[in-house]
Amino acid sequence: MALSLHVKSCLSLALRSVTRPRMPDLRSLSSMAGGLRPASVVVLPESLAPAFESFCQANPLPLMGKRKVPTLGAAPATRPGGAQFQRYEAGICTGSLLSLEDHGGQLEDMVAFMLDCGSSLEGTLEEAGLPTWDAAGEARAYKTTMPCAAIAGFCCHLVVTMRPVPQDKMSRLVQACGSGGGEPGLPVHIGAPELLGIRDLAKPDFGAPLACPPGAVPVFWPSWLTCLDAVSSCKTSLAFTSTPGCSVLTDLKDTEATASHHPTPGTEVQLISEAPLHYSIASASATQKIRKLEAVIATDPGSRGIGHLLQADELLRASLALSHARSVLLTTGFPTHFRHEPPEETDGPPGTLALASFLQALGKAASLVVDRRALGLFQKLVEEAVEQGVLKTRIPILTYTGVSPGAAREFLCEAGDPKLPRFDHLVAIERTGRAADGNHYNARKVNIKQLADPIDDLFLEAQRIPGISSTGVGDGGNELGMGKVKEAVRKHIWNGDVIACDVAADFAVIAGVSNWGGYALACALHILNSCEVHRRYLRKAAGRSGAAIDQGWSQALPSVIKGGGRRTVRPPCCQADLSSVFCLHLLLRKRLQTAFIPSADLRCLTSMTSGGKHAGHPCATRGPEWSDWQRGHGGGWAALPWHPRPDGPEAGGHHPGCTQGAGTRGAGPRAPKTSRDAYK
């Protein structure tokens, strides 16, 4: 039986019930009883009304409005049907009711909250030209493991409703849901149900199952049925709710129904994971800023041809995936200067620690895995980064030897169980990558395999573990993760047919210098976490919206010290719209002016500003033998000591422990030799 709740603004209101076993068809609503709207009802004591309203506003509950419940008039004629209401006493459902009229005296001191029962969602889908799957009006919903923000005594987990949407129509759906400003609003999750704690879509907690046809993606919105557990949690002496699957008709005006919801035009959706299937969303303004960052870091100062390696939106998708991650494993280290101790070039570690710093600012766990021979170096770098305030706390520094079969899975997962991953994202920034023949090469085809531990195996194993994604940042194609673009490397990069990394990452971020990629990832995370659309999606809409709480984010962004260390250029938090782009432009301009990693940028790494020292690192002191114009064999501009070319007369064509790779130069054109390309 369906219930009609008429609210009169100036007279004593009367509650009328009429049986409606199913939701009304949206297309006929305008002609029904003066344009009444369907809703579900929660009736609570007036003393709890402010807390419940705050609970609805702090969580993704589709509140349409509220009314003071009137004294009931005479019961109208009814048609046969099921119970329309549930009665709760001390948090326990004690029975079902056909009508509320027998509780007229108690209702005088109660407030009725009206929530969207799902009909708006079907209307949005239909208006957008998308298939509707719930024409029968069934209350189909799933309990999740996502906690709602607790307000007073209201505390529960989110309940969601699901609709399958064709994959090729996902962008149209997000635009339609975000443009209206009213219910149903943007979804709270797009993709695999297990990410919400839903074990089986075929077994909903409410209503009949709805299959997800091939080529469709499950999309989830908050359901008013969350209120059932919320009412139980508050344990009030008396409360009423609509029975799942039943609705009432209300004359609530559209202006009231949408008053607490605002349009979010220009929303974009991006696929960030295939296994498990996962999409993310952000505002168009945020995504455009990240695309600007991608264009900035793609500048090719060495004319190496990296433009051929670029793939659109890799930085955007990588930063979205990182934004959803909770625990990130970082790696870096390219031992290209094999005649020095340590042999690492300075491209890589600064960008890695800059990203680690911002991950810490966001409250994410960050760990670092490095070569065993470089463990002491990175321990000193991390200690000094903590002393200088670059890192909040020390990050775990790990090593991986891969001595036994299954070692990679044991390293990545608790007890080797792929259902219990320790990390959900891996990031390699200027990390030497394994070539197709199993060796590791610098840009001049010198084999440096003996200096590299098998960290590549972790990225290969991550591809077989659902829930772990990966990003590789490189500037020449021989870095870990660049296997995603290996064909382009072989064709367009000098010596690419030999040096191309064969190990792919899910996302390949290409930069003129790999450090820029690390800086850009940190800045992109700042942009995303300053975007309300993305923040709402991250928190599954639980918790209040509003301005971003900076929590030291701007202090964690990469910075440049100008004027001999007298002034630090760091984008202010209040200018989040352009701050990250501005910061990267400064870094880029500074880099191009000096043609090596300036000591100012190394603030992200250590205190090596204005000629600072670090024992054991080749950047610690710079004497006459250092060449600012010398480019490291790994590809990054670096303030490293000049040393003979491996094929030069000074070196006799070889170095101890390092061999010249076989093969010929790649098919791509070679840039003219200049002072900045002296290593070629």
Automatic annotation (TrEMBL):
<protein>
    <submittedName>
        <fullName>D-glutamate cyclase, mitochondrial isoform X3</fullName>
    </submittedName>
</protein>
<feature type="region of interest" description="Disordered">
    <location>
        <begin position="610"/>
        <end position="680"/>
    </location>
</feature>
<dbReference type="InterPro" id="IPR009906">
    <property type="entry name" value="D-Glu_cyclase"/>
</dbReference>
<dbReference type="InterPro" id="IPR038021">
    <property type="entry name" value="Putative_hydro-lyase"/>
</dbReference>
<dbReference type="InterPro" id="IPR025504">
    <property type="entry name" value="GLUCM_C"/>
</dbReference>
<dbReference type="InterPro" id="IPR017135">
    <property type="entry name" value="D-Glu_cyclase_mito"/>
</dbReference>
<comment type="similarity">
    <text>Belongs to the D-glutamate cyclase family.</text>
</comment>
<dbReference type="Pfam" id="PF07286">
    <property type="entry name" value="D-Glu_cyclase"/>
</dbReference>
<feature type="domain" description="D-glutamate cyclase-like C-terminal">
    <location>
        <begin position="293"/>
        <end position="560"/>
    </location>
</feature>
<keyword id="KW-0456">Lyase</keyword>
<dbReference type="Pfam" id="PF14336">
    <property type="entry name" value="GLUCM-like_C"/>
</dbReference>
